[in-house]
């Protein structure tokens, strides 16, 4: 499974599982592929890597790449709420990132696992909201 960490130019990153997240797709500019040239911190670009574990951090250099870009906030979405999204949220939190979870841009084949993560785990790890709420807050923050 491929996972992407997308630097959005908001001082944060969205970590996705390759799904079609329609609420975000129309509002976020995408820059596919990893650029080989060095780019200054804060430059819009995607960091693309292959994820080989439930979470996006242990088998990749994601933490160092995000920190090199000055990223402090990650926005998580995904297709396996109770495994991949939850594992990545825990790891991001443990690595010192501010975690935001777009609850309407994630799902799980096990509805009970999805519901448990949303109601019991995610509120302990970070902020939760809809994609529109997150986009609105980021836009407001960037306009100041």
Word description of this protein:
The structure is a single chain. By secondary structure, the chain is an alpha/beta fold. It has a single domain (2-143), classed as Isochorismatase-like (Rossmann fold). Helix content is 37%, strand content 24%. It has 5 helices and 6 strands, in the order ββαβαβαβαβα. It has helices spanning 22-25, 62-68, 81-94, 111-125, 131-143, and strands at 2-7, 12-16, 45-50, 73-78, 98-106, 127-129. The protein has a 6-stranded mixed β-sheet with strand order 3-1-2-4-5-6, sandwiched between helices. Strand 1 (2-7) and strand 2 (12-16) form a beta hairpin. Helix 3 (81-94) packs parallel to helix 4 (111-125). The protein starts with a strand and ends with a helix. The model is unreliable at 1-37 (pLDDT under 50).
Strand order, sheet with most strands: 3-1-2-4-5-6
Task: Tell me the CATH topology.
Answer: Rossmann fold
* Main sheet makeup: 6 strands, mixed
Helix content: 25-40%
Shape: globular
How many β-strand stretches?
A: 6
Count of DSSP-assigned helices? 5
How many structural domains? 1
| β-strand amount | 15-25%
User: What is the CATH homology-level superfamily?
Assistant: Isochorismatase-like
Class inferred from helices and paired strands: alpha/beta
Determine the N-to-C terminus distance. Answer: 38 Å
Which CATH class is shown? Alpha Beta
Q: From the 3D coordinates, which CATH architecture would you assign?
A: 3-Layer(aba) Sandwich
Low-pLDDT runs of 5+ residues are 1-37
Order of helices and strands: EEHEHEHEHEH
Q: What is the arithmetic mean of pLDDT? A: 77
